[in-house]
Amino acid sequence: MLTIERADVRDLRKRLRKAGIFDKDEAKQFRRFSAYSMATLGVLGLLIAAPAVWMQVALVPLIGLLLTPAVMHGHDGAHRSLSKNNSINKWMESLAFGLMGGMSTSWWRWKHNGPHHTHPNLISEDRSDPDIMLYPFATAQADYDRSGPAVRFFQKYVQKWAFWPATSQVHFRMRGQSIVFLAKGIFNEGLKREYQIEVLQLFGHVVLFIALPSLFLGFLPTMAVYLGVWSTVSLLLSIIFIPAHVGMPIQSACEDFWGSQMEGSRNYQAPKWAEWICVGLQYQIEHHLFPTIAYTQLPAASEIVQTWADEKGLPYQSLGWGAALVDATRFMGRAWSVPTL
């Protein structure tokens, strides 16, 4: 397993700080979030007003395309990488993840900031990375070994064909998990202020994306649009997230924090015309080493980190986006037989 000397990490942090990589630009991110959100709602309005069903159907994927980067601005808010003022981070997190995404923000921080970022690509008896726990899909032989006969058959023979179609529903799974997490929190801790805010966010999401459109389209057509939009978002988020970790080594222990970040993550190069939708998530190595770097600074950070890694003789995994997707797809086809390290 990869081990990185603490002195080398301090050296990298010093280089990044000297280059101004840890500086924030809240205004730029809020402008972008506002633009994506308003464009999303604007196209939703066009869909409602469209005179023909085929026009409405054609607008559904466009809404999903615009909504994806709007929602994922909550990622920076949750990591406190948007601003040095945590109240501003919470505003972005609430607006992007809560209102626009319809997810519990406390669940996201618990799942993503905690176990995923502390031990990426880990599967062990006592703790695992929830971002790669995709049951009934296997991401390592350990998943296959603890499954029953029917699930093993699925993982060995069906998974490679079912994986990408299934990703179109991943957001509904995430949302369900987040709502259950929120409900348990309220049951165990009472309706404290944080949970009150989250309930209001989810209520606002339902009003914005279901109740108001239903007044014009009717309930069932609105739900069909909602399913189409969020299936598009789910597929796009999977295309963005999956190649960053799936296909990288699966670890059974996290012996070195910094080493595990580089060993379990990879970058991919998105085409210039597509970078806007990734919201910096194509720079997973830099993001995992220093999650508080704003996504607008990650391109510059990647040049510094790659130079540093080359100097220290450390692996710096980077592929084209298409190649990374192909590698992840092939990995999922054989994941049932991939041992953990």
Molecular structure report:
With 341 residues, the protein is an all-alpha fold. It has one domain (6-337). The protein is 69% helix and 2% strand. The protein has a two-stranded parallel ribbon with strand order 1-2. Helix 7 (149-167) packs antiparallel against helix 15 (321-334) and helix 9 (193-217) crosses helix 10 (219-245). The N and C termini lie close together (8 Å). The mean pLDDT is 92.
Name some characteristics of this structure.
two-stranded parallel ribbon; 15 helices
Proportion in helices: 55-70%
Q: Strand order within the widest sheet?
A: 1-2
Count of individual helical segments:
15
In one word, what is the shape? globular
Secondary-structure-derived class: mainly alpha
Instruction: State the domain count.
Output: 1
Share in β-strands:
under 5%
Mean pLDDT: 92
Radius of gyration, in angstroms, nearest whole number? 20 Å
Tally of DSSP β-strands? 2
Biggest sheet descriptor? 2 strands, parallel
Give the SSE map.
Elements: H1 6-18, H2 26-49, H3 53-78, H4 86-100, H5 105-118, H6 141-145, H7 149-167, H8 170-189, H9 193-217, H10 219-245, H11 257-263, E1 267-269, H12 275-278, H13 284-289, H14 298-312, E2 318-320, H15 321-334
Helix pairs in contact: 1-14, 2-3, 2-4, 3-4, 3-10, 4-9, 5-8, 7-15, 9-10, 10-15
What would a concise description of this structure say?
This protein has 341 residues and is an all-alpha fold. It contains 15 helices and 2 strands.
